[in-house]
TrEMBL record:
Name the record gives this protein: UPF0158 family protein
Length: 148
């Protein structure tokens, strides 16, 4: 099998998606590296109708647990120097709805917000590579913008 082009950022996002409101699932097309969201609302082409029954062509992307996503936020807070931002973000993680509280608190600290996105993107990139390696998918990194 030839390596397929994979957008690591997109794959990382799919790994941490968790389904959202539409409760969709993600699959990686092993023929071309395309990520395919599947939900009850998706209007998919005929070739994807039995996507879950073709694991040799479409690899299911098992979403990471919310606990793992929470751990990434904790790890980020641990990188911050002592100060107001670190205390506020650590406190946000102890509140009800910690994901929302964390994101809302980041608006008060623009520099840390930008640093958070870089930290999160790097973590998701590494998770995407681990996913590909664990599933023995031959890949090359796709470049942006996507090629048609």
């Amino acid at each position: 099998m030839d390596p397929i082009p994979v957008h690591l950022e997109e794959l990382g996002n799919a790994l941490y998606d968790g389904g959202g409101i539409a409760e969709h699932r993600w699959y990686l097309d092993l023929r071309n590296g395309e990520l395919i969201p599947v939900s009850e609302y998706a209007d998919l082409p005929e070739e994807y109708e039995d996507i879950g029954e073709q694991p040799e062509v479409f690899l299911y992307i098992e979403p990471r647990s919310s606990r793992e996503g929470f751990q990434v936020m904790e790890d980020y807070v641990d990188t911050l120097p002592e100060g107001e931002a670190r205390r506020a973000l650590a406190r946000a993680l102890r509140l009800p709805k910690p994901f929302r509280s964390f994101k809302d608190t980041l608006f008060d600290f623009p520099e840390q917000r930008e640093a958070w996105f870089a930290f999160q993107n790097q973590h998701q990139r590494e998770a995407a590579i681990q996913f590909l390696e664990a599933n023995k998918v031959p890949w090359v990194e796709a470049t942006w913008p996507k090629e048609p």
